[in-house]
Design brief:
TIM Barrel; 12 helices; eight-stranded parallel beta sheet; alpha/beta
């Protein structure tokens, strides 16, 4: 199965009203701002989109509104983060009916599956839909590691087309290429490893901080992909304090606060997440405001 997925794909925020109900207007306005800045694709309902904090019907509403609004301008994917394999299959089928272009599939939530169980989960969902699937490997956050050898075993599933590699181990990019060649499109899933990953041969970047700095995010990507690594390093050094926020347990709160400070939506999150306060908040705001003050030109 062939797809045209490459470049910067935001893991987009889901915006909420002050009472934590969905704010579709703000969500779509943010999507428009990122499209205008040059993103290449869009992932709704990822970790940053607070997938696991939404009811199933709310997820459908967000996806339907996004698909209708984007209207084919860029590919729209959805995260699939369910607690059971059956639930993931049902959600994948519903996403297809809504008109989603592809899926970003996680292992089953809560339970830490062993390699055989993990492979069975991905095979079962892959066979339940004809949508193309990006496999999300994030052992740091979810406790399940999909190794290069496991991806080699899954290579006979045609709907599995891409890997979002978030192991925080850039050696994995080369290990994947050596093990499965170009069988999968490779996406960096850790913001503060993107320049290293580009040099090792990825096709795309699933980014969190693009929600706050979409133009600078695209600038870094373009400079690096065009081989202008000196200029890319300068942008990366400016960006890295912000990109570190993507690797911390409260990344959703931090990214939403940064985006709000840049004029994109609000920092409202859904419980059990709570907005950050006190010294923690001031520390993040200092990083964001310093970046705004010194943002690169071009």
């Amino acid at each position: 199965m062939s797809v045209n997925w490459q470049g910067v794909f935001p893991a987009a925020t889901t915006q909420f009203q002050a009472d934590q109900s969905l704010d579709l207007r703000a969500t779509l306005a943010h999507v428009d701002a990122m499209i205008e800045a040059g993103i290449n694709g869009l992932i709704m309902l990822g970790t940053v989109g607070e997938n696991c904090s939404l009811e199933t019907q709310e997820k459908h509403v967000v996806l339907k509104a996004t698909v209708d609004h984007v209207n084919g301008r860029i590919p729209v994917l959805t995260g699939v983060a369910e607690t059971t394999t059956l639930g993931a299959c049902k959600f994948a089928k519903a996403a297809k009916e809504i008109g989603i272009d592809g899926l970003m599939l996680l292992p089953g939530m809560v339970y830490k599956s062993d390699p055989g169980e993990t492979i069975a989960h991905f095979r079962t969902v892959a066979r339940a839909t004809d949508l193309p699937i990006m496999c999300y490997n994030n052992p740091v956050s979810y406790g399940v590691d999909i190794t290069p050898q496991m991806f080699a075993e899954l290579a006979d599933e045609p709907t599995l087309v891409a890997i979002k590699e978030s192991s925080e181990n850039p050696r994995r990019i080369t290990d994947l290429r050596n093990t499965v060649g170009n069988r999968y499109l490779l996406f960096c899933g850790v913001d503060d490893l993107v320049l290293e990953s580009i040099m090792l041969g990825i096709e795309g970047w699933v980014s969190g901080l693009v929600n706050a700095f979409p133009r600078e995010n695209r600038l870094l990507w373009d400079l690096a992909m065009n081989g202008d690594f000196e200029a890319a390093r300068q942008v990366y050094r400016w960006y890295t304090p912000l990109l570190h926020l993507d690797t911390l347990p409260k990344l959703v709160q931090y990214i939403k606060l940064a985006a709000s400070e840049c004029g994109y939506g609000t920092e409202t999150v859904r419980a059990p997440r709570l907005p950050i306060t006190g010294a923690e908040r001031e520390q993040v705001l200092k990083i964001v405001r310093d970046a705004i003050k010194n943002r690169p030109k071009g």
